[in-house]
Amino acid sequence: MQVKTGAALLDIKALGDKGSFEGYASTFGGDPDSYGDIIAAGAYTETLAAPKARGTMPKMFWQHDPREPIGKWLEASEDDKGLLVSGQLNMGVQRGREAYELLKAGDIDGLSIGYRIKGYEVDEDNDIWTLTKLDLMEVSVVSIGANKNATIASVKSERRLHEITEKLRAGDRLSEREFEDLLKGAFSLSNSQAERAARVHLKGQGEPDDAATGLAFLQALAG
Questions:
Q1: Residue 73: how many CB atoms within 10 A of its CB?
Q2: What digits encode the pLDDT tens for the residues 16-36?
Q3: Which region holds residue 68: left if phi is over 0, alpha if psi is between -120 and 50, else beta?
Q4: Which of 40, 26, 29, 48 has the alpha carbon at shortest distance from 145?
Q5: Suppose 128 and one of 25, 63, 110, 123 were both cysteines; which one would form an S-S bond, judging by CB atoms 3.0 to 4.6 Å apart?
């Protein structure tokens, strides 16, 4: 499972005088977000049940920094729109007071989630990921959305690598594209290096047993 942050949502619903506030940390369905992801309704059902049973809640951080807790979440629930959270900023710490003043002035108005992906469906033709089950770790107050370059590329690469590894464990043969993705993800090969290796091991350019040898080697790695 991987951890990544969602795009900031400009939807703070209410801000109380003493630092209480409410907003949507995530919304369901619609068009893919800036990462090419769609969160399905019900994705948080399981993860929200566990904290209620334990009497705990996801953490509230400033800008996804675990070194800077700024309060606590009091409630989190799903409705038709998305994940609605209500929390209390800690006005006894400097960063909590700063977050309150920035929210009150409208200088920041974003919430962003940190989560582990536990279930998803992939539309490979359009490179759209529908996240069906998430393990919610924290909800942060943020000034801008999460970095959508290396972090998200890395997460999707890891998800892809996990899929391919599971296919190998099942004893299934990889397609040329899957073989290339595996080599790039597991061994940090360049595109050209991965393509060349795929030609040798899957298309039999070389010794006749190259394809079988390459597959057996990768199955051994996955085992």
A1: 19
A2: 878 888 888 888 887 777 667
A3: beta
A4: 26
A5: 123
